[in-house]
Amino acid sequence: MDRKTILSLIAMGLGVFVIANDITAMNVALPAIEEEFDTGVSTVQWVVNAYALCFGVLIVTGGRLADLFGRREAFFVGAGIFGAVSLLAGVAQSEAWLIACRAVMGIGGALMWPAILGMTFAALPKDKAGLAGGLILGVAGIGNALGPLIGGAFTEFLSWRWILFANVPISLLAITVVYLYIHQPRPEDDERRIDYGGIVTLSLGLVLFMVALDQAIDVGWGDPLVIGSVVLSVILLAAFGLIERRAGPYALVPKDVMRNRSFTATCIAILLMSATFFATLFYVPQYLQKEFGYTAFEAGLGLLPFMGIFALSSFVAGPLYNRLGAKLIVTLGSACIVLGPFLVALGIGANGAYASIVPGLVLLGVGIGMFYSAATTAAVTSVDESRSSLAGGIVYMFQIAGGSVGLALTTTVFASQSGLISGLHAAFRLDAALALAGFVVTLLYVGGRLGAKRRGTPG
To answer: Which residue from 101, 15, 7 is spatially nearest to 62, judged by alpha carbons?
Structure first.
């Protein structure tokens, strides 16, 4: 690769890192924020939830806008919003101010992520598509893994506000490098209609569904507010499908993407696999803190065998994808995600303490790194190149949706048990069962035939 391509990939990596790091870094700062603003945990949790909710709900819209109006332009707008509002969040004088800024940061991230994915795939030749997927997911894994450590260090030695201030120079650097070295052409369509009906119905439907999941953990699935939110969400999502049919080529999710069987199967597999990823991030720290008395920072370190291997295997999966094809990589990765929860469950409560769950965490890291990297590449390259940012946004939406639904189901199963250990055993068994269903979908439908080379043409 020439110097221009390398600098372009570095810029993309910086953008991914700042988004991924911000997802996990603020978690360890919540107690300090709660104390400074003299508020409760039910309020301060929205510092994290507002960002994740807006990011997850609007990422499909961000992908479509990037494909319509230019990925470079979408990146500039998103990174500008992200950096500027990070500065405003860093000087917040109340919890409401901070939460509002975090929601707007989520909008910036939703514009950045699919634009980055589209630009990265476009920056590399088709025979290096696996490298693009591995780079994005690998850097995301590093950002997720270092988030609690960076957030903990800033909170302990400076202030939680520096987590947000640090976003500003990184965003400016990424904008500068993209401006100087990435000059991909804008789409040539003269008529760029925005599907406002699709955006509104999809966004509101997803918001209601994710809020219902969040509330169900606290009040139960039988609560009238939860039931009403789920019903209204289903109505809105059904209306979204009808609106998309009538919107034709101007739809938020065009017909050629919705009817692409390879792309759809990959999204379903990701949906089923994501429960294990989210549950591991949530329940392993809980186990380490409640069973062994780890601090929040120590529990974050305890996730390193999982997140570090996830990042490393994502990078390795890229070259393997190019050499061996999609099918073998996604199949091996999904098999590891099925076996990993069983090993974690066997280790929980065993005499080996923390060391007893490390083999399961390592296997999960290998599986998730290989699977998500290869599956994302397979999904994005199965649609027309002009849809790559949209495809990347949809894939990530399915990851968040699958993780959210899976975590809610896992929490329901966990709460039905009599104690911490038995609850964790039941929870990880459920995750393994969901992953097994994802493995079957992957084996049958994702990545073509075993031994076949990756397809770079539309499906």
So the answer is: 15
Query: Please, are residues 367 and 314 in contact by the beta-carbon 8 Å criterion?
Result: no
Inter-CA distances, 11 with 8, 116, 454, Å: 5, 9, 26
The superfamily in CATH containing domain 1-182 is MFS general substrate transporter like domains (1.20.1250.20)
256-459 has the same fold as 1-182: yes
Q: What is the pLDDT of residues 249-258, one digit of tens each?
A: 777 777 777 7
The rounded distance, in Å, linking the Cα atoms of 393 and 424 is 32
Rounded distance between C-alpha atoms, residue 220 and residue 39, angstroms: 24
Please report, for the chain, the start and end positions of each structural domain, with discontinuous segments joined by +: 1-182, 196-251, 256-459
- The per-residue pLDDT for range 130-175, each reduced to its tens digit, is 666 677 777 777 787 777 778 777 877 788 888 889 889 988 888 8
Question: How is residue 257 written in tokens?
Answer: 């993407």
Q: Give the CATH H-level superfamily of domain 256-459.
A: MFS general substrate transporter like domains (1.20.1250.20)
Residue (of 7, 19, 59) closest to 179 by Cα position: 7
**Sign of CA pseudo-dihedral 273, 278, 281, 282:** negative
